[in-house]
Amino acid sequence: MRKWNFCAGPAVISEEVLAEVKEELLEWGDSGMSIMEMSHRSKIYDGVATEAKQDFKDILNIPESHDVLFLQGGATHQFAMVPLNFGSKEASADYIVSGSWSKKAVSEASKVTSINTIASSEDSGFTSAPSPDSWAITKDAAYVHYCPNETIQGVAVHSPPTLSKPLIADMSSVILSEPIDVSKFSLIYAGAQKNIGPAGLTMVIIEKELMSMENESLPNILRYSKHSESDSMLNTPPTFSWYMAGKVFKWIKKSGGLDFFREQNHRKASSLYAYIDNSSFYTNPVSFENRSIMNIPFILADSNLDTKFLEEAEQEGLLNLKGHRSVGGMRASIYNAMPVEGVNQLIDFMKVFEAKYG
Ligand SMILES: Cc1ncc(COP(=O)(O)O)c(C=O)c1O
Question: What is the pTM of this model?
Fold first, then answer.
């Protein structure tokens, strides 16, 4: 029996999508084989891949100025690929640190290029994010990098700034949760395993003009333009994850697109935050304007009750609510595929738990 999965990633996938995949698992169409067994260069697979790319572009309204890549290596690989391509010995790059992942991005990038951390909320224990108004962009910076949604701390920068420098964003845990203005970004990357599909796939949206600035001395596998020229088939792509992502894109379209998910995601997050804020037993430490709509951390008044909370939640079919090991407490990740009903059941359980032990 399927239960409510609040995992930060790999995360819940729509049951409708899973059922469709199950149906097709042994044989895709009348091809005589599973999609997993098919050459990525076959006509059938090419159709599946092209359609997925087009659906992704449609959903996010991606302008012609940008290309979409289906890569491997996770967001962590992008922590390296971005500075390798666009950092240089002469220029530096600006980074904003608003949580564990953007901090890690800095740590990786500083191995290959000179980094300016132009704003950080580390002193606040990452309970807020530096406002884009406070970002003091460096004159010779090659690009500006930030993480709009910090998955571990549940800290978000909700509106992207308009910058004269290339803006690069790690959208791993927020992509497809609501519409975005892609034209404001030169590069967006996201691991698929939260709002897109199974792990193994990394989405990159890249401004074509930016690719002309990349480091041409890198091996092809590290160059965005080489992936773009070969339609993300420079080498064997993660075919099954790509196929499944395509299913999720169709499901998003059918559900009403990103306007539908924005409304639903805000509704889910608002009801959980409202309950936490009205309770004297649970707290969310994040400043109001930086609260994530995807990852909601909360702590119990008495941390000695943490284990009991998790055990009893599990008995009620509410799984993976443990906060990240670096911050402790609890965290509910409520991506697109978590329905309103799941969040309501979580709130009902929290009420009962509070009444019992609070
Ligand atoms: C915001 C963010 N960036 C980067 C990562 C690392 O992603 P990956 O494991 O795909 O390298 C994660 C993983 O949870 C994340 O949430």
Answer: 0.98
